[in-house]
Design a protein that fits this description.
- The complex is a heterodimer.
- Chain A is built from 13 helices and four strands.
- By secondary structure, chain A is of the alpha+beta class.
- In chain A, helix 1 packs parallel to helix 3 and helix 5 runs antiparallel to helix 6.
- Helix content of chain B is 55%, strand content 7%.
- Chain B contains ten helices and four strands; from the N terminus they run βαβαββαααααααα.
- Chain B has a four-stranded mixed β-sheet, with helices on one face.
- The chains are: A alpha+beta, B alpha+beta.
- At the A-B interface, strand 4, helix 3 and helix 4 of A face strand 4, helix 3, helix 4 and helix 5 of B.
């Protein structure tokens, strides 16, 4: 079996999605930490189009874009599937993945508002989005993937660990047990899954990192 | 699969996202009913089938709705297993196709949309900057595509087009209408010869040709949008 390398960045949720997927599948890989202010030749050569992490290198094949990498992993190592079997259920999962990605702009605004009015608006919109996710995507299930975590859980995984840091920096709490009980429960359950628990960046390091960075840099962490 | 299938597509004639679903259905030979939506007065059915976004396209298959054009394409591919395939079998080849489809859709299209918005606001400098970004993205795309067309000239026999072809021609197939409406070149054969010849070749494929919106109607719509609704997305 050809070797697997992952080019990533310690603070990136996009990078972590791929780590979680590889670990869930039991795939051994070599992790290479990228200095985003001084990108390696390996990164530039393997993702010339946008030079972003994560990049998965499998033998002589390089795959970029975290969502594309996740589907590649799921198709290449089909045991412990991350997507459901039925075409309609898969379409539903992919729909919510797209939704989560699209709403990135809403969360950006939540983090990056300049005025009190902007903050209020962004907060309101964030709560609306999270309510939709809670009601329509999660429903009464433990995980988005049902009994076990699936692709959508990995894509939304950043809410379980990165989002409360943003809330802390912004000074506004939205994802709490009273406002969004099921989604909040999901963040707790998600973090308890062994593969996830063992593969999260240190919280205080992460907090310090985001204090100095703007949300605008997150796109440079991948997507 | 065949007889029991009822397929309805809710769409709008000018939408590139709807067009890519139509092209896919045609290539696969899947019979479907088409329902034209008036986006200023959306039908109850559309709102019911896509309550989250209230947008077209929505594909309804035996009563079950699927929304988001690329999600629909993957659904069609997985559900109708006979007939031509739009995605490669090999996971790596599929990953390459998905990467470039995402690139052209997110990066090039966003830049193009931003440039249309700034053109609408008649802000010369912002517009120029946005167009420059579009060209840069197209150049990256052009370079990346040399891998797909090593012999240089794309041509398509037997309507043998795939996912990436469909995404590309849905976004840029009507570039001549866009160019006439905006008075600038978007897909320039001198700047991006491969993309230009690719789009031109795709427009000759019957399934694509049939789905191309009427030129003059498209020009009029783009000019209208430019004058009146600079923030309107074309997936609406």
């Amino acid at each position: 079996m050809a070797g697997v390398k992952l080019l990533g960045f310690w603070a990136s949720p996009f990078s972590h999605r791929v780590i979680w997927a590889l670990k869930l599948k039991g795939v051994s890989y070599e992790y290479i930490e990228e200095d985003l202010s001084n990108k390696s030749q390996l990164l530039i050569h393997n993702n010339p189009a946008d030079k972003q992490i994560p990049v998965l290198i499998h033998g002589d094949k390089a795959v970029a874009e975290s969502l594309v990498i996740l589907e590649y992993i799921d198709e290449t190592w089909p045991h412990n599937p991350l997507l459901p079997k039925g075409a309609y259920e898969r379409a539903t999962a992919r729909f919510w993945i797209k939704f989560a990605v699209e709403k990135g702009a809403t969360f950006y605004a939540f983090y990056n508002s300049n005025t009190g009015e902007e903050q209020e608006k962004a907060t309101k919109e964030t709560v609306e989005v999270l309510k939709i996710i809670e009601e329509e995507a999660l429903g009464d299930e433990k995980f988005f993937g049902g009994e076990d975590i699936g692709l959508l859980d990995l894509v939304l995984g950043w809410f379980a660990h990165w989002f409360d840091i943003i809330e802390e920096l912004v000074g506004v709490k939205v994802l709490d047990a009273s406002k969004l009980p099921r989604l909040h429960a999901w963040t707790e359950n998600f973090k308890e899954v062994p593969v996830i628990k063992e593969n999260l960046p240190d919280r205080s390091k992460l907090l310090a990192y985001f204090k100095h960075k703007y949300f605008a840099h997150l796109p440079s962490l991948d997507n | 699969m065949g007889e029991e299938n009822k397929v309805t597509l809710y769409g709008m004639w000018a939408s590139p996202f709807v067009r890519r679903v139509e092209i896919t259905l045609k290539i696969k030979g899947i019979p479907y009913e088409y329902v034209e939506e008036d986006l200023r007065n959306k039908s109850q059915l559309l709102l019911q089938y896509n309550p989250v976004h209230k947008k077209v396209p929505v594909l309804v298959h035996n009563g079950k709705p699927i929304a988001e054009s690329l999600v629909i394409l993957e659904y069609i591919e997985e559900t109708w297993k006979n007939g031509p395939k739009i995605l490669p079998e090999d996971p790596y080849e599929r990953a390459k196709v998905r990467f470039w489809a995402s690139f052209i859709q997110q990066q090039a299209r966003q830049s193009l949309f931003d440039s249309l918005v700034s053109a609408a606001k008649s802000s010369g400098e912002a517009h120029e900057k946005a167009m420059k970004e579009v060209f840069e993205k197209l150049t990256v795309f052009e370079e990346g595509m040399k891998d797909f067309f090593p012999s240089g000239t794309p041509h398509f026999e037997d309507e043998n087009i795939g996912f990436l072809d469909i995404v590309l021609c849905s976004l840029f197939g009507h570039h001549k209408a866009q160019e006439e409406a905006l008075g600038l070149k978007i897909i320039d054969p001198e700047r991006h010869p491969l993309v230009y010849s690719w789009v031109t070749a795709l427009n000759e494929v019957p399934a694509v040709k049939e789905s191309l919106p009427p030129h003059d109607k498209m020009v009029a719509l783009i000019q209208f949008l430019r004058r009146n609704a600079p923030h309107r997305s074309s997936e609406a």
